[in-house]
Design brief:
heterodimer, A: 238 residues, alpha+beta, outer membrane lipoprotein receptor (LolB), chain A, eleven-stranded antiparallel sheet, 5 helices, 38% strand, globular, B: 588 residues, mainly alpha, Growth Hormone, Chain: A, 75% helix
């Protein structure tokens, strides 16, 4: 459709703009080093990168929780290797979504509940939510899912990441429920379909998991993006 | 089809369009929580989402004075067509919106279109019927509009039960375009009826270059909004989404193409011999119809909207930024008033509303509007946050209990207006509404499941209905015949301005009051005995969640009482008992 449009444009000044715009970006050639690694090795490398970074921006989102589920709708913020988290959690309780500023550090999750002005410490498991500080590394982190993924297969290269500037390689596989339960405590499914998008530098940029995350509910999707590797931030309890 | 028959069909079509646009003011009230979620605004921060409603009202109000005059200058049918096209464009932008700004821009355009329909349709009535026979068709247009506002929330609820909120606006888009096409076909077949000025060139060959530029603008712009993942992920074509600088959506190759073709389209329309849109002509008419006045009014009102929308009620009512918006709004208001005074053809003719009941009715309408919007927004919102979290239809039916009482009250009010002083009728209505609101402010988490909730709902709706006719009667009785149309229009504008300010101010001030007076919820560990979640604590959270709505209801009660007091004080000299019932019942 686009090619068709640009041919039509050939008469107008807009064609010049489009042409300029396209050439300015150049065509990225993706003869990457990853070709020599097996998919498993790429995932292992991505885990190392994830584990070793000083901090990053994480965004856990879902297009929607199944009806009637009490759980976590999103978590966005900065996670450091302290481990600590500073950001917002959206929790769905009895049909209402509560957005809660959270600072988690030293195994204590401090939350500012809606329509209150102070902070209080919360046991996230009471809310079917993970401790957000542990979402990336360690026992309860997403990085642990990478080596646990089976039947890994390399897929297409796609464009994505921050500002759509990066060329990412997709890897698909499946994650056993036992591994997922460490990250999302409410997990109820046996296996989860996983899709990873990994940059040329071996950074895991996006991970998508499809499966049953909450007991007695339907399949749903969680997408996690990891950006700004190497972020330095001092997070202290409020 | 005879010519008279055709013009009647034309009027019928225009009325349907008016009903549809009226429905749109309220169509979002049920979708509001979903729309807020889509752009990441938590339900407890309603003040930030208020522009979704007030943006529409702003477009509606700011354009009303302008378009009534343009309809005189350019003919009714072209204005109706243009209004429908702008409405459709606004619906498209809203349907594809990806953040708060785009939603509000879309809603504003919808409002501009919707606002343009009303005066043009009323003018059509004036063209088609001699003065003494206008009562009934005018009444029908008004009634159709009120029906629209009752049907609006229901329509929204029905769509939401099968699709998401974007579907509502896609349907709006389709209906807007279909109505525009039907109107145009009909107008071409009946050239003598309300002949569109300067539309003779329409039958000639259309402007191909302009059309191409328009298609390109829509295609590129649509892609910037939607960002289809297949295209974005494509290694080559995905590059058109990479920003040149920063990380916005518009400073990308695709965004620049969209903007450039849009600019070229505008230039083409301004210079072509037979442009798709006669921009020069519209521009001339707009300037003649007092564009500066309309712009100043729009700036003044949007300043108020922004001031409240940027507030952080946890800290204060107005942020520093908000104070600047307010200052800008004040400057624009002063300039607007000055402009009106110096203008050769001011929006409000000098002396038109000099008598106390005349300007008094505008003041009363303002507070009626402020209170009414609280009911229209917060009743369904309350229903959704308490007993019907998953059923928009049930939540809509709660509002319907309020809305059905409204026309009943209106008829009773119209009857009473001829026997009892209008100030008293208005005051009784607004006091009833205030009592209804006070009762609503005591609603708990389960009240809506009980029959008693209906009492406050019906009482509130009846009270508002009761006050409609006497306010109109007061303004009609105290203005000269030749400005009656304008005066009643001003009452409507005043009510909508009240709604616009009300929805913004009440939510923000309500929340602020909540934060200053409410003692914090105790820590979860204290409530739950060591654990951090238990049923008691969830209940506390939910109760805190509805506290904002409860304070809004209280604020609305206050507005209703102010309206009652003003009506008693200012309507004393209005002599209304010999007005015709049909005139008095003109709601808009």
């Amino acid at each position: 459709m686009f090619r068709h449009l640009s041919r039509r444009l050939a008469v107008g000044p807009a064609a010049l703009l489009l042409a300029l715009a396209l050439t300015a970006c150049g065509g990225g050639d993706d003869g990457s080093a990853e070709d020599t690694l097996t998919p498993e090795e790429v995932l292992a490398q991505a885990k190392t990168t994830l584990d070793e970074t000083s901090g990053l921006s994480i965004a856990l989102t879902t297009p929607g929780l199944p009806d009637g589920v009490q759980g976590i709708a999103s978590a966005t913020g900065v996670i450091t290797d302290a481990p600590a988290f500073d950001g917002d959690l959206e929790v769905v309780l009895s049909g209402t979504t509560f957005s809660v500023p959270v600072i988690a550090v030293d195994d204590i999750v401090n939350a500012q509940l809606p329509l209150t002005t102070g902070w209080q410490d919360i046991d996230p498991e009471d809310y079917n939510a993970p401790d957000p500080a542990g979402l990336v590394t360690g026992e309860t982190g997403f990085s642990g899912l990478l080596p646990a993924t089976t039947e890994v297969a390399e897929g297409e290269s796609v464009r994505g990441g921050n500002n759509n500037e990066e060329i990412l390689t997709t890897y698909t596989g499946s994650v056993p429920g036992t591994a997922m339960a460490k990250v999302i405590p409410s997990t109820a499914g046996d296996t989860f379909a996983a899709t990873y998008e990994i940059t040329e530098d071996g950074e895991l940029r996006e991970a998508t998991f499809v499966g049953v995350f909450y007991p007695a509910s339907e399949e749903m999707t969680y997408t996690v993006t990891f950006e700004n590797y190497g972020t330095q931030k001092e997070i202290t309890a409020p | 089809m005879s010519s008279a028959r055709q013009t009647q069909v034309l009027l019928a079509l225009a009325s349907v369009a008016v009903a549809f646009a009226a429905a749109d003011t309220y169509v979002v009230v049920l979708a509001l929580p979903d729309m807020m979620a889509s752009v990441g605004i938590p339900v407890v921060q309603l003040q930030r989402a208020a522009p979704i409603i007030s943006g529409f009202l702003l477009g509606y109000v700011a354009m009303l004075p302008l378009i009534g005059r343009i309809a005189d200058l350019r003919g009714r049918v072209p204005v109706l067509l243009m209004a429908l096209v702008v409405f459709a464009l606004g619906s498209l932008v809203t349907a594809l919106a990806y953040d708060m700004t785009t939603i509000v821009v879309g809603r504003f355009l919808q409002g501009v279109g919707g606002g343009g329909l009303v005066p043009a349709t009323l003018a059509l009535v004036a063209d088609l019927y001699p003065r003494e026979r206008r009562g009934v068709p005018l009444g029908i247009v008004s009634a159709v509009q009120e029906i629209g506002s009752v049907v609006g929330p229901l329509f929204g609820a029905v769509v939401l039960s099968v699709g998401d909120w974007r579907a509502i606006f896609l349907i709006n888009l389709a209906v807007g375009l279909v109505l525009a096409a039907a109107l145009r076909t009909l107008a071409e077949r009946a050239p003598d009826s309300a002949a569109p000025l300067g539309s003779g060139a329409r039958s000639a060959w259309p402007d191909v270059v302009g059309g191409l530029l328009l298609v390109l603008t829509l295609a590129a712009g649509g892609l910037v909004f939607v960002r289809p993942s297949q295209l974005m992920q494509d290694l080559t074509w995905g590059q058109v989404f990479i920003p040149f600088t920063g990380d916005g959506r518009w400073l990308t190759p695709l965004g620049v193409v969209a903007m450039a073709t849009a600019v070229l389209f505008v230039i083409r329309c301004g210079t072509a011999r037979r442009p798709l849109v006669d921009l020069r002509g519209w521009g001339r008419s707009m300037v003649e119809a007092d564009l500066p006045g309309a712009l100043l009014l729009a700036v003044a009102l949007s300043g108020v909207i922004l001031a409240f929308a940027t507030a952080d009620p946890k800290i204060q009512v107005f942020s520093d930024q908000g104070l600047w918006y307010l200052a800008g709004s004040a400057v624009a208001t002063v300039l607007f008033l000055r402009h009106q005074r110096l203008s050769a053809a001011p929006l409000v003719p000098r002396g038109a509303i000099r008598r106390t009941p005349a300007w008094g009715s505008l003041l009363v309408s303002f507070f009626v509007g402020a209170a009414l919007i609280a009911a229209l927004i917060d009743i369904p919102l309350f229903a959704r946050t308490t007993v019907y979290p998953d059923s928009q239809l049930q939540a809509a039916l709660v509002l319907v209990r309020f809305l059905v009482a409204l026309p009943v009250g209106a008829v009773v009010g119209g009857y009473l207006t001829r026997r009892v002083p209008v100030g008293v009728v208005t005051a009784v209505g607004m006091v009833l509404a205030a009592i209804g609101f006070v009762l609503m402010s005591r609603w708990g988490l389960t009240t809506l499941e009980e029959a008693s909730a209906s009492i406050s709902l019906v009482m509130g709706g009846f009270g508002f209905g009761l006050a409609l006719a006497p306010v109109n009667a007061a303004v009609l009785a105290s203005t000269d015949d030749e400005v009656h149309g304008l005066a009643t229009a001003l009452v409507v504008v005043s009510r909508m301005v009240g709604m616009l300010v009300g929805i913004s101010a009440l939510t923000t001030i309500g929340l602020r009051r909540y934060y200053t007076e409410q003692v914090d919820i105790p820590p979860a560990r204290d409530v739950c005995g060591g654990k951090t979640r238990c049923r008691e604590f969830t209940l506390l959270l939910k109760e805190a969640g509805i506290a904002q709505e409860q304070t809004v209801f209280l604020g609305a009660a206050l507005c209703a009482l102010v309206a009652a007091a003003l009506a008693l004080a200012l309507f004393r000299t209005a002599v209304t008992r010999d007005l015709a019932a049909s005139d008095v019942l003109r709601l808009r």
